[in-house]
Amino acid sequence: MSEEEKFEVTIPYKRVIVLLIVGVLLILLIYNLFRSFRESFQLILTVNVPIYILAIIVSVSAFHLYVISWMFLLRALNIKIKLKDVISLVWTSYFFDAMVPTASVSGEAVRAYLTAKKHDVEWGDSISSVVAHRTIAILSFTAMTAVCFIPLYLTYPLSKYVLILAGITVSLSLIGLVALLYFSLKPEAINAFMRGILKIIGKISKRAAGRIEKAEPKIVKTVYDFSNGMKLLINHKKVMLLTFITSVLWWLGNAFTGYVIFLSLGYNISFLLILFIFTLTILIRMIPILIPGSMGLFEVATIALWSAVGISPSIAAAVALLNRNVWVVQVTIGFIATIREIRGLNKH
Description:
Elements lengths: L12 H21 L3 H9 L3 H28 L6 H17 L5 H14 L4 H33 L4 H26 L1 H18 L1 H30 L1 H28 L6 H15 L11 H12 L4 H35 L1
């Protein structure tokens, strides 16, 4: 690669640190305004440490089910990457999702880029593996939400606000799923969309116009390769089923983390209810508010949702903070993986 074409991936440390500080201050402000803050803090001090450590272990272990689900897709496309590298790529993807919250787009884009550049994988195959992974994750998420919602609706007095949020969750998931499948299987639609974007960029910058025109054939080829990769994966029924099952297990493992956190505080809450609330908070955390991990928004949503189903606000606040600590552990692992990937890419 020539010096002119050399490209290095870096972490915007200053921006991340500033936004993290803003997020922490926002959480402190919320809890300072929260009437039951003292009760929540006292409750956290009574946490069963071994059980809470188990919650962290469950969370990290469950994440590797997500890694395995992607490996099935890589193997189907005959992409050979070592297990340790696959794990590192997915953790890096998680880190960018957490630090640059854009409904998972940032993390998936980084994963596709690193897979193609660092491991010499065709762009079309790299993108199709990541998009298929995200598509199945959305499908499993939607199915899980619907499955746990029906029995809860029949047996539990849910407030109308929770019901409305559940309806929005399923609707947005289905819209996202349909959109992903449509564009994945219609390369002409993607190319038309891309040409429109590139023309706009070209009008804004004349300097970029020449580069765009030069790159267009390569972009078109990548889009068709991506679409062919998606069609190949869809025809692999066994692979798709295995990916779906491991994705569901990943979601269940994340929800089970919440169940164990409640246990660490001495409360045995219905797992079905925890699973349902978990799916709603996931949707809220995907809202791109530019603050890492939706700090502040997640805490408010957790307290509000649990309060809506009859759980004490002080308990809900304690659970939200303990959940945030689990997130910190995951982000730390993601950060270590990101440093590894960036160093490896720049050497490559």
